[in-house]
Amino acid sequence: MKYLDEYRNGEIAAKLVERIRRAQTKPWTIMEVCGGQTHSIVKNGIDHLLPEGIELVHGPGCPVCVTPLDMIDKAHAIARRTEVIFCSFGDMLRVPGSDGDLFSIKSRGGDVRVVYSPIDCLKIARANPYKEVVFFAIGFETTAPANAMLAWQARQMGLANVSLLVSHVLVPPAIEAILSSPENRVQGFLAPGHVCAVVGYREYEPLAARFHVPMVVTGFEPLDILEGVLMVVEQLESGRAEVENQYSRVLTRGGNIPAQDIIAKVFEVSDRKWRGVGTIPRSGFRLRDGFRALDAEHRFNVSAIDTREPEICIAGQILQGIKKPHDCPAFGTECTPQHPLGATMVSAEGACAAYYAYGRHLKGADLVSLEGGRA
Questions:
Q1: Is residue 372 part of a domain?
Q2: How far apart are CA 348 and CA 329, in angstroms?
Q3: How confident is the model at residue 3 (pLDDT cuts 50, 70, 90)?
């Protein structure tokens, strides 16, 4: 398929791996930020194609994974209410809270609906004027424009029965927190292509300069990732620390200006709690005062809900690139995609879920390379 298969070509991949091998003289640790990149890396065995000494560690870029457990419990408390139609993207329905998931609430009579766009909630609200329609607005900067448009249009249309349960998080503060940690071992980043398609990558430039760490905005196909790794390694080997754009076919430095405008009109930056990590200052969005009437957390008085994570889970260390899924004693035994204990197993984009899906929990399992052979 044109524009897809060309980014999965095994011969080109082998040439990129060879270029990485020739460029490398030292061991380097590189973090891919986005969960979609992690999934592609593990699926295609890219981490096993790379030369010895190039280690890929997995970052906090899975939006489902970093949604805090107490926010999941708040969503479930709202969804159980008889006057509520609770709307969400499908990937949140199976995420467990302290007592079941949205699927189980639906099976017990809760009106839980999958929507394919936040704007679908407007039609539902108009058709059900005596119901409260709540949308679970999670994600990184990528999903913020559409979620902001829901709030904007609901206010413009005077729909008083629409609200949003907001749990938006931002990537640059998370990278800053990782680099500021005394346990940090990340020396370069594959920055998230989809996030930067919306907001650009100007915010990453001060981080690269301050911490002297190269960042390459990278796509999601195997050749994207290999080229991104090559660009990071070349910077590291030459002593440079800049922001470069591997994903130039999709994004620009300035990003999508209309999308940024609607975000700025509806949301403001706030502190946010990240699942497995804790609170990171100024790392998320909340509704501005003019839209506070649409804030489901306050409308349904669930702000006081606070939930503790399972102590055995090391998701926080995995999300910061300190450890990998197979370092967790519960991985593949007590913690599986069917019964996830922590952040990185709750979504298919999470590092633990990706490792499990592609057999990294099986002792002695063969690993399939991009070219279809064994790595």
A1: no
A2: 20
A3: low
Which are the contacts of 122, defined by CB distance < 8 A and separation ≥ 6? 150, 153, 154, 157, 159, 162
Residue with tokens 């069917």: 338
Neighbours of 16 (CB within 10 A): 21
Scanning the chain, the segments in alpha helix (DSSP H) are 10-23, 35-43, 46-49, 63-66, 69-79, 102-107, 120-127, 144-157, 171-180, 193-199, 204-211, 222-238, 257-266, 296-299, 315-319, 351-357
Paired residues of 231 in beta bridges: none
3-class SS shares of the chain: helix, strand, coil, % to 5 = 40, 20, 40
Cα–Cα distance measured from residue 373 to residue 48, given in angstroms and rounded to the nearest whole number? 12
Amino acid identity for residue 147 in this structure = N
- Counting the structural domains of the chain, the total is 1
pLDDT tens readout for residues 314-371:
888 888 889 999 899 999 999 998 888 877 888 878 899 889 988 887 755 444 444 4
370 assigned to some structural domain:
no
- Residue 50 sits in a domain whose CATH number is 3.40.50.11740
For residue 293, is it within any domain? Answer: yes
Residue 109 backbone class (left: φ over 0; alpha: ψ -120 to 50; beta: rest) = left
Q: Does a structural domain hold residue 375?
A: no
Q: Which domain holds residue 72?
A: 1-361
CA angle 102, 173, 166 (to 5 degrees): 30
Structure tokens belonging to residue 83: 């006057």
